[in-house]
From TrEMBL:
Belongs to the binding-protein-dependent transport system permease family. CysTW subfamily. Part of the binding-protein-dependent transport system for molybdenum; probably responsible for the translocation of the substrate across the membrane. It holds the Pfam family BPD_transp_1. Gene3D superfamilies: MetI-like (1.10.3720.10). It is found in: Cell membrane; Membrane. This is Molybdenum transport system permease. It is a multi-pass membrane protein. The chain crosses the membrane at residues 20-38, 58-85, 97-117, 137-155, 241-262. It comes from the Bacteria. The complex is composed of two ATP-binding proteins (CysA), two transmembrane proteins (CysT and CysW) and a solute-binding protein (CysP). Keywords: Cell membrane, Membrane, Molybdenum, Sulfate transport, Transmembrane, Transmembrane helix, Transport.
Length: 272
């Protein structure tokens, strides 16, 4: 009887309507509102806001540092996913759980941890200062904050593919005399590449928008350590909502393009 009730047309229609309303109110309307507001005074004010040297340099800096953080996460994340799936060792379950810690922690807490561990008063920061370079309030700290926040994406995208991989092709490669490196590059890597690409795109998109961790460790110097998200916050604080919306549209458009590409990669991976 419960199954019959769930299949009732009224219940199905109500459920779909609720989901669509939820999607429209929480996602579509805010996105449409940002686009509408950014162009509310025409193309010229929008272009002036976007082409402002401080804004443009903040966007370019964010893109550069997000790419660096994504490259680090692709390399380290692939290695960690491989270890978690292929090896059994004491503490593996704890390590596997800690991978999701950046999802659970407020990003500001992550920024505070970086500040305490790598700041001028820490032993790592003091050693770096004696060697002639600084971490906190410079670009390395921003990259570290982005890496911390986006850490789980690549790992969690690769793990299911490694777990579902048919071992016969790998065993056949070893039987034919291929080395571990050759087997990984020619047999394993093509099978996990959709996860690597999808996870990398998610990590890059998330790094572009990071604010909480970055604002504590960046220093926020224009053209040097001022990222796009912190620039947007500053524009809102300065009551320049149009400038904030214009830069937000750039980041939002880029994120939407990335999500579309992720969907394409996942579809191709599913067909293959």
């Amino acid at each position: 009887m419960q199954t019959t009730w769930l299949r009732h047309k009224g219940w199905t229609y109500g459920f779909r309507t609720t989901v669509l309303l939820y999607f429209v109110i929480l996602i579509v309307l805010p996105i449409a509102g940002v686009y509408a507001y950014s162009f509310s005074e025409g193309w010229t004010p929008f272009w002036e806001s976007v082409s402002d040297p401080i804004a443009w340099k903040a966007v370019l800096l964010t893109l550069k540092l997000a790419l660096i953080a994504t490259a680090i996460n692709v390399l380290i994340g692939t290695m960690i996913a491989w270890v978690l799936v292929r090896y059994r060792f004491p503490g593996r379950a704890v390590l596997n759980s800690l991978v999701d810690l950046p999802f659970a922690l407020p990003t500001a807490v992550g920024g505070l941890m970086i500040l305490l561990l790598l700041g001028p008063n820490s032993w790592v920061g003091s050693i770096a200062e004696r060697l002639g370079f600084d971490i906190v309030f410079h670009q390395p700290a921003i990259v570290i904050a982005m890496v911390f926040v986006t850490f789980p994406f690549v790992i969690r995208a690769i793990q299911p593919l490694l777990e579902e991989m048919d071992p016969s092709a790998e065993e056949a490669s070893y039987t034919l005399g291929a080395s571990r490196a050759t087997t990984f590059l020619r047999v394993i890597l093509p099978q996990i590449s959709p996860g690597i690409v999808g996870g990398a795109m998610l990590a890059f998109s998330r790094a572009l928008a990071e604010f909480g961790a970055v604002v504590l460790v960046a220093g926020n110097i224009p053209a040097k350590t001022l990222t796009a998200s912190v620039f947007i916050y500053g524009e809102v604080e300065s009551d320049n909502n149009l400038g904030a919306a214009a830069v937000s549209v750039l980041l939002l458009t880029l994120s939407l393009i990335i999500l579309w590409l992720i969907n394409r990669v996942q579809r191709r991976g599913g067909r293959s």
